[in-house]
Structures
1.
Amino acid sequence: MSRKRIVILTGAGMSAESGISTFRDNDGLWKKHRFEDLATPHAWAMNPELVMEFYNARRKQLFEVKPNAGHFVLVKLEEKYDVQIITQNVDDLHERSGSSNVLHLHGELKKVRSTVDESLVYELDRWELKMGDKCEKGSQLRPHIVWFGEAVPMIVPAAEIAATADIFIVIGTSMVVYPAAGLIGYAPHDIPKYYIDPKASHVGGISNLKVIQKKAGEGVPELVEELL
Ligand code: OAD
């Protein structure tokens, strides 16, 4: 018998207990900074040094934090299920905790890419990207992040994965950024769905959704125990 497939959509709240700021909570990154100055192609064109400095600081932090109990317990689901994680997070904490299948919708902090050929993506082994760091075609490297106003190339495989779910779990996301927030709509109508987030509320038009208003560190281990 083939294993049931669990598809898990995660957001910034998944990594909050590792010490990484979310975006829209009171102490969130987009409460402290204007995203227009840091996370758009226009911002990069106007002030690449500032954009680079912002992502360098976040990349530096990534070398200082660790996966939390929520990340680790998701790995246990692989004992019984085919687990596919779709994350909006640009950190690598799912990978570092041991999850096998992780799709990054919004890019990866530890990667950089060419500004003339987006297929040229490189792993950065240090935290600092500098002006003058170039790709093999001689153009400046930029953070490998999907900025506001840019296409989300991974949404197509993500929607295909969502459509094959037997169970769908959402963890730690405000569900306001599209197209990511729309992925739950691709999951089959009748399957069980769970939404773990202290501020979770019902998502319009989604059937069979159990809302769990808890932090990831508490809600995820409880749900994993139930599913195992
Ligand atoms: P948000 O900051 O919009 O939402 C974070 C969610 O995490 C909120 O719903 C919080 O209630 C919840 N949360 C906070 N602490 C939590 C905890 N300990 N456990 C569980 N949940 C917790 O972040 P995202 O929804 O991830 O894109 O934002 C989506 C995208 O917007 C991001 O990927 C980012 C941002 O702009 C890019 O940077 C490209």
2.
Amino acid sequence: MASKRNGCEGCTDITCISSKQVLAQDIAKNVKTGYDRVQARGMSACLFGSGGTCCRTCNMGPCQIIDGVEEMVGVCGASADTVAARNFARMVAGGSAAHTDHAREMVRGFIETAKGEGPHQIKDVEKLKSLAGVFGIATEGRAVNEIALELGEKALAEFGKQDNTPLTMLKRATPKRQALWSKLGMAPRGVDREIVEMMHRTHMGVDHEVENIMLQASRCALSDGWGSSMLSTELTDIMFGTPVPRRAIVDIGVLKPDQVNVTVHGHEPLLAEALCLAAQEPDMIELAKKQGAKGINLAGVCCTGNEILMRRGIPVAAGFIQQEVVLSTGAVEAMVGDVQCLMPSIVSVAKNFHTDIITTNYRAMMDGAVHIQFDEHDPVASAKKILTQAIKNYKKRGEFFIPQDQKLDVVVGFSHETINYMLGGRFRASYRPLNDNIINGRIRGVAAIVGCDNFKLADDSHVVIAKELLKNNILVLATGCAATALGRAGLVNPEAVKYCGESLAEVCEAVGMPPVLHMGSCVDNSRILIAATEMVRQGGLGDDISDLPAIGTAPLWMSEKAVAIGQYFVASGAQVVFQSLPTFGAKKFNKYLLEGLMGQVGARWNVAQEPLEIARLMIEAIEAKRDALGINKKKERVLFDMAMRRDLTSGSGIGDVGCTGQQRNV
Ligand code: SF4
Ligand code: MSK
């Protein structure tokens, strides 16, 4: 077991230096992590489950289907394709539901803020007015909070909308995409409605046709990407401030030896923001000092970490895969969580130490955890209760180990607005320079590396892919735990230009930006949709997202949310590459995802197993788009006449000339 943690040959290696160091300590010897459980389970995954053809939809099953074998269809007669499509669509619904429930809480918090209740204010008035415009809300001469309240109420209504008109935020897509969605019957109507309809249609005995199931899966995913996730990101920005570039640190080493360490895990920034406010209150600091600590140190885990990193520069201690490792330092007084991506194992890891796992959301409880319900009406009081519980643990801290070798600087905070501003400047903020650099080939294209990490796969996959893309002059956008992993590898700061091809390095150096732009948490993938749409609007790169030399990957995905994100990218016209999909047991359905969707929405899913293979596929897809746009055209070969030769020998110009005296094709 220990050898696995240290990365023995043939095992899925732990490449993170800090994780290795922590797990090698004596204090962590009784800790079992996901790595240990992958190894202990030993067996390879069930082929029916991983191929997508195990159906548990009704009590005549479970039915394990073998594609093409007549007697191996379901008891009801369901084929492998029907079953795999239903399972896949239910993953889309599960992921969309998670984003949607999160988003609803953010909208409710936004409404409270607009009413002047609670500790938060409207911070980004410009963005408020711009989003109000999308909803047709008058802003002239009105008080900020009045506009915000109307916006909040209209946003909340999007969740329960029952008529057949499209969601309001779809207006932000390109006209061509909106027309396509409408033609295909893919435009989502109400956010909750699409999830409910997806669950209904995949119930026993309803929708059995692959394309029809997937039409609703696209509509459901789009209600997440362009509906709930986008609303969550935008309203969170308006309330807590749109991220701007700032320096911060990522790694387990951000824990402090002489402070009360509280790690904040999960997804909803309402809890994290309240903890940030409460940790600055004099009575909390006083209490910590009374226990012998120098102060309170907050550090993020998973996407909550990304939210407070982006907006406040509060360090991220760990991504998903390190949540047990960070506890194994013995230096964490409490891990506070809300919803999503909290592994139940953290309770048993914490039992080895003085650490409390504190759950705060009635939706997400765990045996053995302390539950302190977060009261959104009085967030700071709730946060103080939580911190008090953590502070009390400080004196109980025993032996601990905080790794120091790897603490890495990152520059984060690349919202769509920031990219606009960085590239174009305050008075001509635009994506024009990005488009121009793509057209002239200095930047070949844009790639998004998003999503989770996963104990079953090599945890340096994000890094291998990113380095290959950068080397090939492709700008990388990152969100979620992928962004944290890239940060840990030193790729999310301007010094990472050393990994770039020459022309990308020049552009990044000129602008002063990192070649990997950290765009936030997993709900913030909606920022990428807006950025891509803005690139189209700027002109020169086609008239829809499907024309852009751009592609996304979630190589180490584990959550259903990643499948929802993948599907909303594809339905928006952006190709995605995953390391595996639970669909290979159903030939027709698998072919539909990997090929058929292309003819319908201009994008498709791709699967490639090795990180370098993923990178290669992404580079090829980007180059194919460049070819289709005609921006890979070689320059006309110029034949030199006598006058030109004279110019040449007098040294008057034409710089890029080969030894034969003919201009090089570039
Ligand atoms: Fe089996 Fe059909 Fe029931 Fe699925 S729905 S469990 S395939 S009988
Ligand atoms: S936290 S969904 S492991 S990105 Fe958003 Fe990370 Fe994936 Fe959870």
